[in-house]
Amino acid sequence: NDGTAIANYDGDLTIKNSMIISNITQFAAVYNTADDVNIDINGNYWGNATPDGFYKSTGTAMTVDDYVVFNVTVEPEEDVAFKDNVTVKAFFTNSTDGAQVTTLPDVEAVTFSSATGTFSAESVYLENNEATTTFTVGNSPFEITATYPNMEAVYTGEAKMPEPMIITLNDGNFTEYFD
User: Fold this and answer.
1) Which long-range contacts (CB under 8 A, 24 or more apart) does 114-121 make?
2) What mean pLDDT do residues 12-30 have?
3) Which one of 13, 43, 89, 179 is CB 3.0 to 4.6 Å from 8, fit for a cystine?
């Protein structure tokens, strides 16, 4: 929209554990005009690496010191080889202490993508603020992108590749390698 999702004109304002995902182009997702009020808009997912620019006030100043960040990791992280399966997890953490956040609504699916392997599921709905899939490593380095509305998290890993082989084809062994 071209307006404001949440507007406060009078009184205290508290928004917690919310997903403020906006396609705003002209204003702010959260807007305040009230003076001399208490405003707490910390602990929310803003659909951006930082919430800067997504809130505005002409009254009492608003600040966001603590917000939710979107992440992606793999297990195991080390000793991964070509064609191994790794578990990919997308989740949310707190910006101030890195603690995992489990209080947001599970409203959207996470989309996983990579040019260097395959997933057991490319679109996974959040459950308890996590989305998990399996990735089969197809090259090194490999890169996995998890996308959640308005935000991407990228993981880059290394995999041990097989040793190159020299194969000499002849009439006797041709069918071992080709039909």
Assistant:
1) 114/138, 114/142, 114/143, 114/144, 114/145, 115/143, 116/140, 116/141, 116/142, 116/143, 117/142, 117/144, 119/88
2) 80
3) 13
Q: Give the residue among 113, 97, 102 at the shortest CA–CA distance from 148.
A: 113
In whole angstroms, give the CA distance from residue 129 to residue 12.
28
- Give CA–CA dist 29/51, Å, rounded: 10
3-state helix, strand, coil in the chain (%, to 5): 0, 40, 60
> What's residue 1's pLDDT?
43
* CA gap 106, 132 in Å, rounded: 13
Q: Pick left, alpha or beta for residue 36 (phi over 0 → left; psi -120 to 50 → alpha; otherwise beta).
A: left
pTM of the predicted protein model: 0.81
